[in-house]
Design brief:
Elements: H1 5-15, H2 21-32, H3 42-50, H4 73-85, H5 91-101, H6 105-122
Helix pairs in contact: 1-2, 5-6
């Protein structure tokens, strides 16, 4: 990937300085050494690509978190039916659901937590007078 001087400055100008650490790093690199037609950009590209910021989804082991997956219609239907029967499923029920739905037990647990919170938020709040 070749990064051109005008592309970086245009992007930084659009978002402003301090908007994103990588943009600031790119602007610093480009402003210090303008690219020449005959230069090899591979060394700079590697150093830019290897820079990490705190907002990236790498964990301490260097593994990238998988992208969040939404439950499909079939999974939602089964989860909602189970929620109607028991809003607090046991860990065994969560494990069975996870296996049946192709989800992790943790994602099933989170789904139930979110549903319980939504149910609480829908209830009218008693006002203290």
């Amino acid at each position: 990937m070749v990064i051109h001087h005008f592309q970086v400055l245009k992007t930084v100008g659009r978002y402003g300085s301090g908007a994103h650490p990588k943009l600031d790093l790119l602007a610093d690199l480009v402003s210090k050494k303008p690219p020449s037609e005959s230069s090899d950009d591979s060394a700079e590209t590697i150093s830019i690509a290897s820079c990490q910021t705190h907002d990236e989804s790498d964990n301490e082991d260097g593994k990238v978190k998988p992208k969040r997956k939404r439950a499909n219609a079939r999974q939602l239907s089964i989860l909602k039916q189970t929620f109607q029967q028991t809003p607090f499923p046991t860990s065994e029920i969560r494990k069975k659901l996870a296996k049946e739905l192709g989800m992790t037990a943790r994602s099933v647990q989170i789904w139930f937590q979110n549903q319980r919170q939504m149910a609480r938020n829908l209830l009218p709040h008693a006002e203290d007078s």
